[in-house]
Design goal:
By secondary structure, the protein is an alpha+beta fold. It contains 24 helices and 23 strands. The strands form eight sheets. A five-stranded mixed sheet has the order 1-3-2-4-5, sandwiched between helices. A four-stranded mixed sheet has the order 21-20-22-23, sandwiched between helices. A hairpin with a 2-residue loop joins β22 and β23. The longest helix has 20 residues.
Amino acid sequence: MHTNQLIHETSPYLLQHAHNPVSWYPWGDEALQKAKNEDKLLLISVGYSACHWCHVMEHESFENEEVAQLMNAHFICVKVDREERPDVDQIYMEAVQMLTGRGGWPLNCFALPDGRPVWGGTYFPKAQWMAVLQQLAELNANGKDKLLQQAEGLTKGIQQLEIPVANTDVTPNIYQAVQKSSTRFDEQHGGFESAPKFPMPVALKLIHQTAVMEEDKQLLSFVHLTLNRMASSGIYDQAGGGFARYSVDERWFAPHFEKMLYDNAQLIALYSQAYKASHDELYKRIVLESIAFVKRELTSPEGIFYSALDADSEGEEGLFYVWEYSELKTLLGDDEHFFRYFNITESGNWENGKNILHGDVTREAYARQYQLDPQHFDSHINTALEKLLKARKHRVRPGLDDKTLTSWNALMIAGLCEAYQAFGEEAHLQMAESAMKYLLDQVRQTDGSLLRTTKNGVSKITAFLDDYALMLDALISLYEVTFNEAYLHTAKELSDYTIGEFYNATAQVFYYTAKSGEQLIARKTDVQDNVIPSSVGSMANNLIRLHQLFHLPEYEAIAKGLIARMTKTAEEHSTYYAQWALLAYLQDKRQELVIAGGMAAAYRKELQQHLRPGAIYAGSVDGVSKLALLQDRFKAGATLIYKCQNKTCELPVEKPSALR
């Protein structure tokens, strides 16, 4: 059996390649120095453990002796887990997008020994891959001038910062921009545009919160359509809870079956917020089932959260999740409404005679269509699905990516806080606090820095801006649901560290990498929202919230400067810069809800059951808080609730119901 340098790594993705005949190296000085010494191009191959086409290319090419021989002879081959090293992925993804107009994973990029990219692409079938290898090897031997010229052009493009100059000439209308974004809406199935279709929770949050604030029934209808269709369709694991990463079709029917922590964390938050505004029991069920999935399948014994479940099991995509007609008949008998609701057919509704459980409408709509009692039908479906989940436990499970990422754990903690606000389940708060305790004990270092990834009790890799920004968001969120000021003081310390390491006051930008971290060929920023919110946008939001709580004008100035630079772009492309659009929209609408007195915890729970975009909560039961926002707020024998906005407070009220 072959063994390469990846055998010493902790990343499940890198370990998957540790016995390839390719002489893989992890990203690092050893590989780069070897490329310089041997005058070879770097072959940088980036993927992640749950990536289906990464597995396909590995099987076709990287496990093939002939292909490996060609790779080893002419290149220094470097494997990168994009989830561990998003900074490396970001640079070479941008190079490939500049070269080909598109990107994705697997990502394969060739670079000079100093790391400057020269050519690349995504997935290559074996024959095409071998031709590419031969052409690049020939160019390195006889066309170095061409490679150098290409590298200089690509590197110059990569080094340009994406953040625009502030435009203060025009007063933006974000609400109008959100309304105009409806040209991207799929009004039939929900979601954005056509296949493949991703949930995009950052964009949905923007639309939902502006719709609630503006009482826009049309926008709300689109959000509810999207949430309902996703919850009822194949992208949601009907038997086990939790969402797959995306749907390959426009109907949310056939998922790409990998399940990622970051998707489920954000969708738990989004469905919790939707429940707060609508009290739709469907949204509550989805949140509770999704949290149960995370607890059952993505939670470590220490209480932190694993990264992902693979799409494949037994070498076949989706095999763990799909059903044969005969199997369902054996388990459920002649359950007419179950088979009809989930579109089960004897010949299968998907590939190879298999069935994906998917409904075309919500359970409630189906029950009404067939004149069934909705509660009875819902209970009946749940009982049947419990049987399927029990039977599924005997199948070969998909691969688990059991590394822990600081940023994704922080997203999950914040999602649990949203669920706790909506439903008051103490178990959700306990999960959140347990995970945060582990991160603060294990991931936070004595100098105030964070590490990005943890596995088997070992943490490593200097953290990136998303780790800090999302950790801050989680700490502030935990304070809001506990009024434990230790979380806030930790957040303040971490914010100061983040500004020192990542913020350039001259350029007025947060970089994605720390100044004390590894220096790559470019120091990039991260302003566009994608499946995960922009880390720079998250920092702007954190700084505003901390300013609201501590009164820190210097924080507010940094945040407002960033928002000013991004507002025009957010107005023009609101769903692609959704967090920035929401930040701009909420600038004059933010509130502080301050609760002081013995009933503070109870009143907090009552108030937080309602969606209040832009509100932040502060409070204390005993009057000993040193928080600026709580000074002179106490009155003996009473619990007072203050609502403040734009640095002005209304007279306090004594009951949550009296708050306008």
